[in-house]
Amino acid sequence: MRWLTVTLITLLVALQWPLWLGKGSWFRVWQLDRQLQQQRVVNQQLIARNAALDAEVRDLKQGTDAIEERARNELGMVRNGEVFFQLLAPASANRQ
């Protein structure tokens, strides 16, 4: 009877080993699930960024407002008859 119990326990451990510690174990499935959730968050951020870039490209292709805004902000361009004023931040008191 003792040998039968030891044999059954050994067989049970041998069958459970791959389930808990093997290549396709529960721990590995849990790790992969966590990585999948993290990747989904990254994908959502990239989808939002791509949508913003797509909207900007469509705006640049269709209208002149976006082009004008970029020219004013990035290149400092002004229209004919406009006066450009640039306000500078006051110099720091720590500079000497």
Structure explained in plain terms:
With 96 residues, this protein is mostly helical. The chain has a domain at 24-73. It has three helices and no strands. It has helices spanning 2-21, 26-62, 65-75. The longest helix is centred in the middle third of the chain and has 37 residues, at 26-62. The mean pLDDT is 84. Belongs to the FtsB family. One of its GO terms (biological process) is FtsZ-dependent cytokinesis. Residues 1-3 are cytoplasmic. It is found in: Cell inner membrane.
List segments where confidence is low: pLDDT < 50 over at least 5 consecutive residues: none
* C-alpha termini separation: 93 Å
Total number of helices: 3
Question: Radius of gyration, Cα only, in angstroms?
Answer: 33 Å
The proportion of strand residues reads under 5%
Largest sheet: none
Mean pLDDT: 84
Question: What is the percent of helical residues?
Answer: over 70%
What form results from the Cα inertia axes? Answer: rod-shaped
Order of helices and strands: HHH
Structural class, please? mainly alpha
According to DSSP, the number of beta strands is: 0
Question: Which features does this protein show?
Answer:
single chain, 96 residues, mainly alpha, 3 helices
